[in-house]
Amino acid sequence: MRVTIFGTGYVGLVTGTCLADVGHDVVCVDIDQAKVEGLNRGAIPIYEPGLEPMVKANHAAGRLHFTTDAAGAIAHGDLIFIAVGTPPDEDGSADLKYVLAVAQTIGRHIERPVIVVNKSTVPVGTADKVQASIAAELAARGAQVPFDVASNPEFLKEGDAVNDCMRPDRIVIGAANPLAVEKLKRLYAPFNRNHERIVVMDVRSAELTKYAANAMLATKISFMNEIANIAEKVGADIEMVRQGIGSDPRIGWHFIYPGAGYGGSCFPKDVQALARTAQQHGYGARLLDAVESVNDSQKGHLFELIQRHYGGDVRDKTFAVWGLAFKPNTDDMREASSRRLLAQLWDAGAKVRAYDPEASEEAQRIFGEREDLVLCDSARAALADADALVVVTEWKQFRSPDFVRVRQALADAVIFDGRNLYHPDEVEAADLAYYGIGRGRSI
Ligand code: UGA
What we know:
The protein is α/β, with parallel strands linked by helices. 44% of the residues lie in helices and 14% in strands. The chain starts with a strand and ends in an 8-residue tail after the last strand.
């Protein structure tokens, strides 16, 4: 099928590439000329495992095109996806300016019936706004072209996005017109093998499904972080508690890992946006507000542990920080817990030697040159001349360090483990003090 995708960010690029990979003819449009030129040369703007070879192969095979020519791209697609960003507004609601700008462009250029599909994470009711924008543009030029607006939210995890896209656990289609449903079902047929993954519903339910999924996952994390804080107070070990509850299938093993708080471009933004939508409809979403506020304090928790250890004075101390990205397998630092920690350490007069396997460039871009930050080339290099180690992101390569070596490197012989990667006994056996999250027994 002929598909057009507006936006070559992480969602648009991964979706477009996967659709091309199963044989569809995909044109990706972006207003960023440099990005489009780069993509046409095979330069992938994001780090996402497995994506680069797929983009190159499908581009070479002539199934995946990148352009800034919106009119040409609109003429190409029977299905036109909107996958542009929805950054948070000042009040936490999703800013729709990019989505609606695309809708206007579509309205200005369509000449034949199309199905417009919203893939961006947008508040309930956005499809109606997209519909109205397109209709207004058509009316302005006196054109009458039938079109539908459907909602088809994405459930991609950064770092595993290609896999999520190629092997989805569900495909949510929200559409009023049965013809639109049929077309989207045909589009996704190659991903819908062996058992039914497609869930068809009305547009508003599809829009809400996306927020509900992310809000539920964020709730699980904040819940565990809260229990971890209680564990710390009462002298229990959250890792034992986690193992004690995860085997109940009603609870499950996923997303019950306490840590330094959730970050990224989705959870923080989506929880706030859903709370805001609720508020706009006269409902105060107390649980969502609590999920957000627990996460906000959790991002400061590592620093609290550090302060506790040092009796409130970390001036001129040097901290080795392992991990800057908001989670492993990405270079994304949006809303990353590391950013809060670094800001707090710097405010308190401490210095940082940081290492992240992928996010150094991004860190350089965010923080620029500063005396109190050294970005290192390896985990070991970060330890050199440091007083303490703080683990912020659970990259695999941080899982089993040589603790004796770590002990030799660190002047103050202490590890703050923001992701509970280590067993306290193992760390303490190397004569290192250990602080984890929710590990009351070691505090
Ligand atoms: C999230 C969802 O998991 C995807 O399903 C969704 O499609 C995506 O948002 C989106 O809306 O686009 P993502 O933000 O890539 O994906 O990252 P996650 O793997 O969900 O992790 C989010 C944060 O939660 C990370 O900072 C991670 O460290 C933290 N986390 C995760 C925990 O602290 N504990 C856990 O048990 C799990």
